[in-house]
Amino acid sequence: MEYPFRIADNIRTGTPIMLVKISYNGIDGFGEASMPPRYGENLDTATSFIERLELTQFRSPLPIDPILSYIDNRQTGNPAVKAALDMALHDLWGKITGKSIHELYGLSNSKLHTAKTISIETPEIMARRVTEAEDFHYLKIKLGTTDDQAIIRAIRNVTDKPLYIDANQGWANKEEAAKLIDWLSTQGVIFVEQPMPKNNFDAMEWLKGRSALPIIGDEGIQRLKDIDNAELFYHGVNVKLMKSAGIREAYTMLTTARKKGLRTMIGCMSETSCATAAGAQLGSLAEFIDLDGNLGVTNDPFVAFPCINGEIQVDNSPGLGLKSPAWDTIEPYIEN
Known about the structure:
By secondary structure, the chain is an alpha/beta fold. It has two domains: 12-98, Enolase-like, domain 1, CATH 3.30.390; 112-312, Alpha-Beta Barrel (TIM Barrel). The protein is 32% helix and 18% strand. It has an eight-stranded parallel beta sheet with strand order 6-7-8-9-10-11-12-13. The protein has a three-stranded antiparallel beta sheet with strand order 5-15-14, with no helix packed on it. Belongs to the mandelate racemase/muconate lactonizing enzyme family. Keywords: Isomerase, Magnesium, Metal-binding.
């Protein structure tokens, strides 16, 4: 990663990635599992899961639904590696039929205004990172520190762009969180993402009713079952392929949330262009876009949709839309 990535409860300089290729009749489908350590998956668990699968029982990758159901039901958990297999099968589906994933789902290829994420540093460094992100229309600011107001003041000294706030469960006291949100509502903030611990249901329900800004669930929204009562605690949901086990369930989560009147966001982990391209295929279902996980990566082996002036330029390329998967040139990164 170009810069250390610090949020309320951890910091890292890279992310374990597993890239997957599924081949059929000379056509390759690509997928990716991004596994930040805080979510419990790693290269060993992903490898173990894949080794338990018997994909040769399927004579063709189409239709993909029976294969994805088999993969998901084979073992609980492991959403990131399931997402990698889901992406690869969707990529195959699109390449075999000559259609993009968004076309296969009946969606548009709208230009997507993604936010640029600014992770936690000193207020001065965060303000400098903001000036480096001058091409972006929206900024996502990580908070959850004792300097949260100082951070926002420093940022407001260098930009008046609208802000998304992500506390990553970093605020422990609901009354203090409500007061801070009151203040943030005067600072050009659009919403606050996961302000309090995801399992503190009483506090989240209280805060949702009291908040001066919309609250978006992230850590509290993992898979489809979490949409059932999401409106009790959140005004909207952040859907990520690495949480949802891939494109198929993310599509259902987003459409279900919209039917329930929830605001929708599609986000990402630290990823290569493979996974962010997959997320972008569902972008027209989301009000808020946070798909910049590939932009801070220094060793991205893929090229997909360009991001120009903060807009992801999604086109109708078949499958995920990868332009030049450099599969044979990938060098594993090993941290000493």
